[in-house]
Fold:
Amino acid sequence: MIDHINAFQTSWYLSPAWRGTIPPIAVNLLERVFLRTTRTFGYCCGMQWKHEYWIYSIDCGKEILHATQNQIIGTGELETITVQKPAFVLGERVILCSHDKGTKQRLVLGIALVHNSWFYMVELMSPSLIKTPTISNRFSLVGEKSLVRVNA
Structure:
């Protein structure tokens, strides 16, 4: 029975949330963008797959705002920040090193630049079949050292 549960969980974690081909992103990481909602400029410091579409994190200097692709316009210019490129890409299969229960393979569902370091959004646990009174976040941002690339 345990083998069936592990097989199901492995299948769950490695099934893309976007059901098939990864949808294109509207802007690149570190691209300068115009936010229509606030009529300000900023740069894309992250993105994550949530609620069936990409949510972009926009650094506007004093605050980070979140927007959909319909709320931003990319300029094609990259912000000049001296950080290394992200080690992993969206949709890449990785092993979560710090997770000790069940399967460790995950998909990268988001990327964020936090204090000049890249973090990657992965799903920590599969959804519960039993409704619980507590709200738990199944997703987490983890650092590069917590992930290992899976050779396909």
In short: Helices lie at 2-14.
